[in-house]
Amino acid sequence: MKNKPLGLILAGGLARRMGGGDKGLIKIGEQTILDRALSRMKPQCPHMIINANGDPSRFAFTGLPVVPDDIPDFAGPLAGILAGLDWAAANAPETEFIASTPGDCPFLPHNLVERLEIARAKAGTPLACAKSGDWRHPVVGLWPVALRTDLRRALMEENLHKIEIWTARHGVAIAEWPDQPVDPFFNVNTPEDAARANELAARYSQV
Question: Which CATH number fits domain 6-203: 3.90.550.10, 3.30.565.10, 3.40.50.1000, 3.30.930.10?
């Protein structure tokens, strides 16, 4: 990889199980989930952007560009990934890849991008995603900017929204992490998840 990837935090979900709002603004310990995610991703990616719909000013405190979907009707994470790929092509043309993570994961690994790239290069595939324990995390991945036209066609012409159907067409490598003692891709979807994340953060201060 000639250049480090652009980092993309996907914060465009509707958070229905949390009763609405932005899951990334929930506090885990003394930091919001978004702050925790950014603190892990910024050392790995020289530039970061946030994908989110609605009023971008709620993320102004980050000082980062906030990029909305241009596919209508909350089309899911592939629409957010496409928004990131398009932004990279227009604003950082030297960027070959983006590295995406959800905006609701407070324990992201510090070696995420490196491990994804090693897996991708070893497998000889254009794409890579993460796995912990028995679970694959297709939203946590490396995406080549060169595939953005194909992704737009899949979304707009095929109405395709399942990530793993699209990635399987091109080839996706899997980078694996243990899910104990803390799953690095634990995501906060419910108030109960938020409580559990606070317990984990207090018990395992290194995560």
Answer: 3.90.550.10
Whether omega for the bond prior to residue 106 falls within 30 degrees of 0, making it cis, is: no
Q: Is the pLDDT of residue 35 over 60?
A: yes
pTM of the full predicted structure?
Answer: 0.93
pLDDT digits (tens, 9 = 90+) for 142-193: 999 999 999 999 999 999 989 999 999 999 999 999 999 999 999 998 999 9
DSSP code, position 4 = P
How far, in whole angstroms, is CA 13 from its chain's centroid?
Answer: 12
Residue type, 57: S
Q: How far apart are CA 103 and CA 51, in angstroms?
A: 9
Return the sign of the alpha-carbon dihedral for residues 153, 159, 163, 165. Answer: negative
The pairing of beta strand 27-28 with beta strand 127-132: unpaired
177 - beta bridge partners? 132
Instruction: Please list the alpha-helical segments (H only) found in the chain.
Output: 33-41, 77-91, 112-123, 148-157, 163-170, 191-203
Angle between helices 77-91 and 163-170 (to 10 degrees): 50
